[in-house]
Design brief:
The structure holds 2 protein chains of 2 kinds. Chain A is α+β, with helices and mostly antiparallel strands. Chain A has 3 domains: 308 residues, no CATH class; 113 residues, no CATH class; 58 residues, Arc Repressor Mutant, subunit A. Chain A contains 16 helices and 16 strands. The chains are: A alpha+beta, B alpha/beta.
Amino acid sequence: MAKDRLNEVLERYEAVIGLEIHTELTSLNSKMFCGCPVEFGGEPNTRVCPVCLGMPGALPVPNQAAVEATVLAGLALECEIARFSQFHRKNYFYPDMPKNYQISQYDLPFCAHGHLDVEVGEGDAAYVTRIGITRIHLEEDTGKMIHVGGSEGRIAGADHSLVDFNRAGTPLIELVTEPDIRTPEEARRFAQTLRTIFLALGISDCSMEEGSMRVDANVSIRPRGAVELGTKAEVKNMNSFKALHDALAYEIVRQADLVDAGGRVVQETRHWDAAAKRTSALRSKEEAHDYRYFPEPDMVPFEFTEEWIAAIRERLPELPAARRDRYVQTFGLPKHDARLIAEDVPLAQFFEQAVDAAGAKLAKPVANWVLGELSAHLNATGAAVGSCGITPEMLAELVVLVDEGTISGKQAKEVFAEMAESGDMPAAIVERRGMRQVSDTGAIEAVVVKVLAEHPAEVESYRSGKSGLIGWFVGQVMREMRGQANPAVVNEVLKQHLDQ
Amino acid sequence: MAEPRRIVDMTGAQIADAIARKELSAREAAEAALAEIEALEPRVHAFNQVTPELALQAAERIDAMVASGESLPPLAGVPVAIKDNMNLIGTRTTCSSRILENYESVYTCTAVERLLAAGAVPVGKCNMDEFAFGSSTENSAFGPTRNPWDLERVPGGSSGGSAAAVAARMAAVSLGSDTGGSIRQPGALTGTVAVKPTYGRVSRYGLVAFASSLDQIGPFARTVEDAAAVLQAIAGKDPMDATSVDEPVPDYRAGLEAGVEGLRVGLVTDMLEMEGCAGEVRAAVENAARVLADLGAEVGEVELPMSRHGLSAYYVIGPAEASSNLARFDGIRYGHRVKDAEDVLDLYMRSRAEGFGPETIRRVMLGTYALSAGYYEAYYGQAQKTRTLIIREFADAFERFDVLLTPTSPTVAFGIGEKASDPLAMYLSDVYTIPLNLAGLPGISVPVALCSESGLPIGAQIAARHFDEATMFRAAAALERALGLDMTPPLVAERQR
């Protein structure tokens, strides 16, 4: 879809978007109400027990760490934490739900009334918008249905269905935003920013592909200036940030086209098809579900004290936005670079350790190396920053070698490649390969004289005005010296001789 | 108490004692119980499953301990029967329902595990009202249990099988579960001692849930001492049940001889005056109060007007929780499943319609309705408010009294089929017991008389403060000693001859 088309629609209509985001607490050791491990995939029905299979007589015992993780998320998003809270049962029948009720929260969620400030756009067009967070609650995930005999694993046309309960009972937090989002880009930035926060909190791996972070959106449009809300559609199955953006853009234009043609938006759930790049109605009418919520009698309510909440607050790490600002202020990093590092917890830890080792005045070159060679290396090898073979100390030493003029930037790249391969410290590699950069003016001068003598025509051209040839001369000298000359000194000596 | 004529006439304490003194082997005790079951079961039908292999294995372990001189656990060799809504590996756990007719336990209920760890020998799984819905054990998919005092009468329910097994001496003690009176009422109707502990005193893990906020497991026995010993074995915090409470468990048997001198007993007069309370029941409870007074207790009168609304609140809260708890019986993972379902909805509807009996369907529908949008506040919300008021009323009463005395059941055992077609009349059976479940309080039913007309047992209920089962046992033991009733049913007398 043309971006112009969305912009044109958004000139006439205002989109009103609210998100509902489910995040599995994948970093926990055990499920929400039993001791089974939390992991992705695996042989079906191997991580199950009487509790998460809903066997007769089994009882749920709440995972305290999951409760704490939820409250931690609430505190990170400026929520009010309930002093009194409890679980409710949400009753409905579905084969992926062992008890035919989901233990969830209803009118007493752990966290409510929070907000997240989201930065949208780049450069001059950048702005900050505050998105309200209605609530964050804790619940258990369902199992997974596997439909056999139909097309693409969909239930329609399937011959029979199997259920895998490995995921059943995985702790899941549900975050609901206020309808404060106005554009697909704001929605995408909200989800991305939230993800960086959850990653910083260490509560989830937030993988949209594996489904550990699932975003649904409610979207409606209204004429610019109107107060009354339009009829909303719920959009599901957006498995990436791009899908979230594209599905919302599609849906806004679809609703505008409908209204422009004199039609009406119906309240329904729509499925995003990423391949076809369109949404389609999943259920023609919202089924009138009556979940018969009532307080979960198998558990006692939670009463959180000020002290307990304060203790959780103590565990809040520095969040990405604060970390980015610190990098800008303390190290003078460009905002964009600071953000890229700050939003990636392991990368930020690596960066800070390297800066500690190299000295704060080298923070900028360290950042360049982290975002340049190191990130490229991680992308190429698929390794995690903690296990890629390059330590913060190695990178720091390399940056210092360049800063002290011992090796050139070009040489440093070779050293980087070799230390990534061998795991040796850069100084040792420089020593072994005799890569010490020559800054001795006398040695360089001898080569310069030789190069100029061998290329009289180029010298003539340079002197008659083609000053750009200086780079070519530098290259010739460097080649003669097998790259070990200090390029700044070479440049200086060349100019002295050429300009006399 | 008369000298026991047979092994099965011995109390649990006597059996454990005789085994410890090597006058009796656990195997002999188990075989005697199994033989008694074989003789009487066709007439009583207390069991859904008899477990001779489990019993003999457990007995052999005890005998091996005796042989090797190991110190014995407190219930060593005591034959125990278990209500069929508690999981025990190696048995089916059917809840007397077609939907679980072939369901094999995959783990063992905490209370059962603790009882077996205390040396008890499991002889079988007891019949009950389906999913514990009922007060007569007539709502069993496998046929009613009969009262050993009169085989044409019900033993009460829902733990009727557990009560009848102990009354008929097919087991020395048994476990039941009590949601609204399902231990105490059959206790009264079969002349046994029957205990519902404080909510949270005994783990519910492994007990197939009826109403999670009301259910408690408790013992049946023929003496207060045995009941206390069984509760001792099963009580205490369980990490698998978040509603079990980490409250110290005192030595219940230590205080049984202490008497009731100075104990403040509240006779609940408005319950005695309630319409439907049989004259002899009232007279028997009033007599029990006099006996306690003669023993030095300070007996006073108290009214609990809110409690009369307990029945209504209970028939909202109980079915509401049950409708949700029973949702898992859907034919997907276990239990009865129709073979030719067209789709998943058809599978659910027909599996459940075929698997559940009429009373179960009635309760699930009642509960579903009570929780429905638009009705929740009027029913569930109102019932919870009533529950809060009942809790306060009891709290006030326990400011003045240490224990409260009421009838257990308004009538003696009624005839099989007599109330089967009138659910409301049946529900009234539990009018005295339900308030304690709503308030989470402990209660014990002890035999206090035999009806002069019918010869059937009459029970009195003694209620105590939360976690004060010790005082309740002390009062019950004093009454038991003073009354000195011979609670031998005609069926047992016949066997003794």
